[in-house]
Amino acid sequence: MEPKYRLFIDEVGHSNLRATEHPNEQYLSLTGVIMPLAYARGTFAERLDAMKREIFTTSNIVLHRTDMIYRRPPFECLHDEILQSRLDQLLLDWIATSTYRVITVVIDKIDHKKRYLVWQAHPYHYCLIALMERYVMWLKKAKAVGDVMAESRGKKDNRMLMESYERMFRRGTDYISANLFQQSLTTRKLKIEDKRANNAALQLADLIANPSMRSIICENKGVAMEAAFGTKIVEILKKSKYRRSPAGIISGYGTKWLP
After folding, report:
1. If pLDDT is split at 50, 70 and 90, which confidence band does 161 have?
2. 1 pLDDT tier (thresholds 50, 70, 90)
3. What are phi and psi of 33, to 5 degrees?
4. What does the alpha-carbon distance between residue 131 and residue 31 come to, in Å, rounded to a whole number?
5. Are the beta carbons of 102 and 7 closer than 8 angstroms?
6. Please, what are the domains in the chain?
7. Is the pTM of this model over 0.90?
8. What H or E segment, with its residue span, contains residue 105?
9. What pLDDT, on the 0 to 100 scale, is given for residue 82?
10. Alpha helices (H) in the chain, listed in sequence order
11. Apex CA 185: angle with CA 184 and CA 188, to 5°?
12. Would you place residue 120 in the very low, low, confident or very high pLDDT band (cuts 50, 70, 90)?
């Protein structure tokens, strides 16, 4: 059966439970972008290509948030503040007006270890369970089927993610039956895409994943989010992109904080 939707996953952080209190070590987050597959391959990708041609004079370039922030090759042209401002404007419009839904799951690995002295979940599997449960429930409500794609992160991480996905497909979870997983998902295999494939939806996931994670951390720690551009992205997500309950509640539906 051909999937109508695809969940595009981006990861921020790493799964090692030997975490420090440094923000780059303490948290792991998975962000999933739910998008109609035909739209992702068509109109959505075409808009991104047009944006790239305007700013970089070529569409054969893969957007990567960290490299863009530090203006590493091939993003040296963003030292031009006028060009940077124009790109920011185009990106925010693209993020705001495109058709998709977002789910972000964050785990505080230090809090997790303190709370569960005996039972400790593997952070990757724990986050993926929470993400996939919400995706499958979204598909059920939409009366549709879909599949899942993640960007390649290296052999070990890829294998870990694929094994976690296949385990859920076969067994289900504590909250979602294996039968519902198998009715909703068109394949037992997680798709892995190399960054060089220039996948537009994975590039969107890369751009929004870090701001989304940081916003959830700030809300749970009671501190203000400082990044100006990231805050604008999060405002868009909260306004119309996060998955939410029928009553409009985002927490627990489009965002999930795991201890």
Report:
1. confident
2. confident
3. -105, 115
4. 8
5. no
6. 5-258 (3.30.420.10)
7. yes
8. strand 101-108
9. 97
10. 23-26, 37-41, 43-56, 65-69, 81-97, 109-115, 123-142, 155-171, 178-184, 200-221, 228-236
11. 145
12. very low
**79-90 pLDDT tens trace:** 999 999 999 999
Degrees, nearest 5: CA angle 142-219-216: 45
Nearest one of 234, 231, 238 to 253, comparing CA atoms: 238
Q: How many Å apart are CA 62 and CA 193, to the nearest integer?
A: 13
d(CA 105, CA 86): 31
Extract the tokens encoding 235: 């405002």
CA distance 144 to 185: 9
CA dihedral of 239, 140, 212, 17, whole degrees rounded to 10:
160
Report the alpha-carbon distance of residue 44 to residue 194 in Å, rounded: 19
Report how far residue 147's alpha carbon sits from residue 139's, in angstroms, rounded to the nearest whole number.
10
Collapsed DSSP state (helix, strand, coil) of residue 59: coil
Residue carrying the six token digits 């051909």: 2
pLDDT higher than threshold 70 for residue 258: yes
Query: In sequence order, what are the residues at sequence separation of 6 or more whose Cβ sits closer than 8 angstroms to the Cβ of residue 161?
Result: 9, 124, 128, 150, 153, 190, 192
Q: Which of 17, 259, 251 is nearest to 124 (CA)?
A: 17
Task: Name every residue whose Cβ is closer than 8 Å to that of residue 251 and which is 6 or more positions away in sequence.
Answer: 257
Residue 185 one-letter amino acid: L
**Tens digits of residue pLDDT in 166-191:** 999 999 999 999 999 999 999 999 99
Which residue type occupies 143? K
Task: Determine the pLDDT at residue 106.
Answer: 96
Q: How many residues appear in the chain?
A: 259
